[in-house]
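User: My instructor asked us to take a sequence, write out its structure as tokens, and then describe one feature of it. I'm not sure where to start. Here is the sequence I was given:
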Amino acid sequence: MLFDFFYLASELKKVQRRGWKNKVGVEHPESVADHSYGTAIMAMVISDIHGLDTGKILKMALLHDLAESVIGDFMPDEIVKENKKAVEDESMKEILAKLPENIALEYNNIWQEYLQASTKESVLVHEIDKFEMAIQAVKYSSEGFSNEKLGAFVDSAKKEIKSKELVDILDTLSYK
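Assistant: Let's start with the prediction itself. The structure tokens for your sequence are:
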């Protein structure tokens, strides 16, 4: 049972972040696992700075894209947001069913909290998800990819992030 969970989770290492490839032309883009790791590191630091529940935030950051190990990486223009949530939720149930019931229940509760984005912790993880994407855009810019195309990713993040602290960091980024 645990093997099946670990096997599915490790599939994230093979799922490429498609927006980088399709919209920017990055031939070998980061994987969803790469993105999840970056999100977890950033969320851990910001959570500790603000005295939030870092244990829960780390779990949330690691779970936030786990469904993509089954469904793959959708780009925003490929699926309506509500449909994406439903597909991800179904996939997450399938994945978490491979864990002991008490752990599956805890992780599902954290996942549902993330989906609802109604707590400080879940709002932070949503914002860090976008923030990490913007940081990756700057990294791709330093590798010579189109600043115009990458700027759209940073601008998209800025529209969704409300935290002044994160917006201030984004405002210092050089990608144009």
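For the description part of your assignment, you could build on this observation: The mean pLDDT is 95. Try explaining in your own words what that tells you about the chain.
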